[in-house]
Design a protein that fits this description.
Helix content: 55-70%
Shape: rod-shaped
Length: 418
């Protein structure tokens, strides 16, 4: 069985030699001590002699037990050294294990540090790209701002209170461009942040609201024409309303682009007037008279009413041109046109169909012969006009002859005008 505290060979040899040496030295020391005790005085007496005897016996016992004690001490110290060596070995093993673990952790930390550096490089590159994109976005926004405020078209952005929201208070103006304020005469602060009803009059607001709701529901751009009374006057706009959706497809804004086409519409109306109206007098021309008179005859046939046509030829018109010039002749024609417009009944048509020829289409006569009554009223109006003009110092007067054609059953416009 292995002893609890095993001796190592070196320790066993050293302490065996020490025990042998001690066994040789101790008797010598004891003999010397006894020799010393032998010189004690005899007068000490029996008691003292007995005490000395016991001391001598103790010394002799010590000479026999000291080597064994020293050997035990050597054995104990040898076991202590073995334990210390075992502890040292255990500590060395643990230190080695901890060192290996620390080296692994250091390697892992080094790898993590490399990964962090790589990730940092990626983040730096990504941040640089984001900054580049942000700068590009800022430049684009600046360009869009220049376009937004630089375009002559009116632009406005309406924000919905909630995605796909509709209804009277669902739309609130988020921004308008400079042209919007310039054309409408409405300051930006009076528009931005307000609803349709707070910006437009009731009727245009309701009409615009219906179009906004339709655009949100259909998610399709809507183009329409609108006429709005504004501080700068009544204007006509060609408007395109476009829905703007978020990533989920829900409509969040409406972008409106409106072009002021007031001048264009007026020009178109003027062109239509030129095709159907006399430029000098503003009366219907032959084409305009035919279109309007045919429509009136259709209505007359359904209601079985009687219509008539009055033909007027301007008398002494050439002498006015020759004696007073073409400006006086134009003035005479305009005077006849104004006179006829004021003398006829509401609903009658007045036209200049030739150089000095005029026609009055009298619709819905109450009885036979009423057209002649109207002709007499026109002549009386002409006489009153000449009297007022002469009193004002005008050197010439106007006069015209009137012919009457009353509608018979089955007559069409060509029959009346023939």
């Amino acid at each position: 069985m292995t002893p609890r505290h095993p001796w190592t060979p070196g320790i066993r040899a050293r302490y065996t030699a020490a025990g042998a040496l001690l066994g040789a030295v101790v008797p010598v020391l004891a003999i010397a001590l006894l020799a010393t005790l032998g010189h004690w005085p005899a007068a000490a007496g029996p008691v003292e002699a007995l005490r000395r005897l016991h001391a001598e016996q103790d010394l002799l016992a010590l000479t026999h037990t000291a080597p064994a004690a020293l050997a035990w001490v050597g054995w104990w110290l040898g076991g202590r050294e073995a334990r210390l060596r075992a502890v040292a070995g255990s500590l060395e093993s643990r230190v080695a294990e901890q060192t290996a673990a620390l080296r692994q952790q250091a390697d892992a930390l080094a790898a993590a540090n490399v990964a962090l550096h790589a990730a940092n490089d990626v983040l730096v590159a990504h941040q640089a790209e984001l900054e580049r994109q942000a700068e590009s976005l800022r430049a684009s926004q600046a360009t869009l701002g220049l376009i937004y405020d630089g375009t002559s078209d009116l632009m406005f952005l309406m924000a919905l209170d909630a995605p796909d929201a509709t209804g009277p208070d669902a739309y609130r103006c988020e921004s308008v461009n400079a042209a919007y304020c310039a054309v409408t005469g409405i300051a930006r602060e009076r528009v931005v942040g307000r609803t349709l009803r707070q910006v437009l009059p009731p009727e245009p607001a309701e009409l615009a609201l219906s179009r906004y709701d339709e655009t949100v529901r259909t998610r399709r751009a809507l183009r329409y024409e609108e006429v709005i009374a504004l501080p700068t006057g009544t204007r006509t706009f060609d408007t395109r309303l476009t829905p703007i959706a978020d990533a989920r497809g829900a409509v969040t804004h409406l972008l409106g682009v409106a072009r002021d086409v007031t001048a264009q519409k007026r020009a178109e109306a003027a062109l239509r007037d030129l095709s159907t109206h006399d430029e000098l007098t503003g009366l219907l021309n032959r084409r305009g008279l035919r279109a309007a008179a045919e429509q009136a005859l259709l209505v007359g046939r359904r209601t079985a009413r009687r219509d008539a046509v009055l033909f007027l030829d301007l008398d002494r018109f050439k002498p006015i041109n020759d004696a007073h010039g073409h400006a006086a002749g134009d003035e005479a024609l305009r005077a006849v046109g104004a006179l006829l417009r004021h003398a006829v009944r509401a609903g009658d048509l007045v036209a200049r169909v030739g150089g000095d020829e005029f026609v009055v289409f009298a619709a819905g006569l109450a009885h036979v012969g009423e057209a002649y009554v109207l002709a007499a009223r026109l002549q009386a109006a002409c006489a009153a006009h000449n009297a007022a003009a002469a009193a004002a110092g005008r050197a010439w007067s106007i006069a015209f002859s009137v012919g009457v054609a009353e509608q018979e059953a089955g007559d069409d416009l060509d029959a009346l005008l023939a």
